Amino acid sequence: MRIDVFSIFPEYLAALDLSLIGKARQDGILDVRVQDLRAFTTDRHRTVDDTPYGGGAGMVMKPEPWAEALSTALSGGTAEGESGAGERPTLIVPSPAGEVFAQATAYELAEKQQLVFACGRYEGIDERVLEWAGENFDVRPMSLGDYVLNGGEVAVLAMVEAIGRLVPGVVGNPESLVEESHSDGLLEYPVYTKPSLWRDRPIPEVLLSGNHAKIARFRRDEQLRRTAERRPDLIAKLNPSTLDKADRAALEALGWTVTAEAVLPR
Ligand code: 6GU
């Protein structure tokens, strides 16, 4: 997968040299290209922003450097060939005004040949850049959630990690991707390691039983309990057809009603 990132603070993206993503780059699985947006300016001051038409606080990113930068992402080849073998690259524009990025988004984007990230700063990028880019890219304004960051860089680090780890070969043991939070719409169960008794705190006894069916049931009940406690919005989104008899009993005990159509608070 090819990933292009444009930012006026390319140093922010240095973390992509580290850990799993850095290893995947070394191994040639991820082709990550970070570029300084100011390299695409033509004036002496390397200007990337200007005042907003219509007035108001802050500055807006000028369209010209963005057009030059994004045009370079349309050439240079991908693993699939020089022209990217036909698939339009996806242009992700981090913004608190975007669609919320979720695990399902990460799975969807992990299938793409090329992702391009346009990091905005200030009040954002001139809207015409997004319209113009729509001629050559699938444009996706994306938010991490309902809070405001100063720019897109931190959001890009989060999204590239969430997407990159789903690309085949990036995570050594793909089994570890199966049982994790959000993969089945529930939060992960709690985990424990040695010693079995630590500062007067034992681990749940069932984990020492060797009874794998009982352990699986315990973990599933813990997932349901935690999710009901911390993220009731996720419980309300569960599809009843994915719930077995024991799941239904656990949810009833947690104050939910499971009908054929939905899971509802009682
Ligand atoms: Cl993707 N960008 C910015 N600037 N702020 C955010 C965000 C993104 N997601 C949440 N807040």
UniProtKB/TrEMBL annotation:
InterPro entries: Alpha/beta_knot_MTases, tRNA_m1G_MeTrfase_C_sf, tRNA_m1G_MeTrfase_TrmD, tRNA_m1G_MTases_N, tRNA_MeTrfase_TRMD/TRM10. Keywords: Cytoplasm, Methyltransferase, S-adenosyl-L-methionine, Transferase, tRNA processing. The keyword Lipid biosynthesis does not apply. CDD domains: TrmD-like. S-adenosyl-L-methionine binds at residues 120, 144-149. GO terms for biological process: methylation. The keyword Transport does not apply. Residues 1-236 form the tRNA methyltransferase TRMD/TRM10-type domain. It is an enzyme of class 2 (transferase). It catalyses: guanosine(37) in tRNA + S-adenosyl-L-methionine = N(1)-methylguanosine(37) in tRNA + S-adenosyl-L-homocysteine + H(+). Coiled coil: none annotated. Its main location: cytoplasm. GO terms for molecular function: tRNA (guanine(37)-N1)-methyltransferase activity. It is found in: Cytoplasm. Its EC number is 2.1.1.228. Belongs to the RNA methyltransferase TrmD family. Homodimer. NCBIfam families: PRK00026.1 (NF000648), trmD (TIGR00088). Specifically methylates guanosine-37 in various tRNAs. This is tRNA (guanine-N(1)-)-methyltransferase. It comes from Arthrobacter pullicola. The gene is trmD.
